[in-house]
């Protein structure tokens, strides 16, 4: 038999009488939530009252037009920034030492001769 502990869901203003309950099954280590949907905002009837209101209708129209004008202005500004921005500098030809993988002197005899000269000092 599974042992169940009744827990109160702490989402929103849920309490003992609100119907928001979560149950925890210790053996299966599972939490089952039983949350009732809560109405958020205005109902359809409340919104219908303001749909054709003489004050809100022009306000909605003006805000709708301002939104699209602002959107078009930002889009045009982005295009203007791209078009008017300075071009990239031309790529310069790299120096000879920047094109090679490594530098290898042609004659290393000078190093060997210096080494041979100093070798008797260390012996």
TrEMBL record:
InterPro entries: SLC3A2, SLC3A2_N. GO terms for biological process: L-alanine import across plasma membrane; L-leucine import across plasma membrane; phenylalanine transport. The chain crosses the membrane at residues 62-84. It comes from the Eukaryota. Keywords: Membrane, Transmembrane, Transmembrane helix. Residues 36-101 form the Solute carrier family 3 member 2 N-terminal domain. GO terms for cellular component: apical plasma membrane; basolateral plasma membrane. GO terms for molecular function: aromatic amino acid transmembrane transporter activity; L-alanine transmembrane transporter activity; L-leucine transmembrane transporter activity. This is SLC3A2_N domain-containing protein.
